[in-house]
Specification:
By secondary structure, this protein is mainly α. The protein has 3 domains: about 35 residues, no CATH class; about 40 residues, no CATH class; about 70 residues. It is about 50% helix and about 0% strand. It contains 6 helices and no strands. Helix 2 packs antiparallel against helix 3 and helix 4 crosses helix 6. The protein is flat, with a radius of gyration of 29 Å. The N and C termini lie far apart (about 65 Å). About 5% of the residues are buried. The model has no long low-confidence stretch (mean pLDDT about 85).
Length: about 160
């Protein structure tokens, strides 16, 4: 609207533009612009989806969320919560967050000098559950947990030695 659509300058001379003429600034005072070669905001092929979108938009919010759940756009928990006016959303654990949780447990056990049997069993049980999920599962290797845990312990000990000297 203010004409700050700076797009550089023309590098070649044409019938409409001179060499070095700025490309921007032609939209000064415009709020909405049309794309070149397009007639109107939507094309004929887009009319059915536009009508469906508009019809869905005038439905009560609860119906909109219900349709979203039916179409797989949103989880049922989220649909019910949002329909009730709560700002809820579902998150899913990532491999990074799962590994971080196991590594933190590993570090705690290592500092206390206790055996890792219980944690190892916990990781194995977790991996068995992930195998049941198939491709959606996020298995975690014990060697990754040990490697990252030992790095953290080593780093903390080195930091403690520096502060002692």
């Amino acid at each position: 609207m203010l004409g700050y659509d700076d797009k550089g300058a023309y590098l070649t001379e044409t019938k409409e533009h001179e060499l070095g003429e700025p490309k921007g600034g032609k939209l000064t005072g415009e709020i909405v612009t049309r794309r070149p070669g397009k007639e109107g905001p939507i094309g004929i092929s887009q009319i059915p989806s536009y009508i469906i979108s508009q019809l869905r938009g005038i439905m009560p919010i609860q119906v909109q969320y219900f349709l979203g759940w039916l179409q797989g756009e949103i989880e049922m928990f989220d649909a019910i919560g949002r329909s009730a006016g709560a700002h809820v959303s579902s998150t899913y654990p990532t491999e990074k967050s799962i590994v971080k949780t196991f590594v933190e447990e590993y570090v705690d056990i290592k500092k206390k000098g206790k055996p890792f049997n219980d944690l190892r069993e916990k990781v194995d049980e977790y991996n068995e559950r992930q195998e049941l999920r198939g491709e959606e599962g996020i298995p975690v290797s014990w060697s990754t947990i040990v490697k990252k845990g030992l790095n953290i312990v080593k780093t903390e000990r080195a930091g403690e030695r520096r502060t002692e000297h």
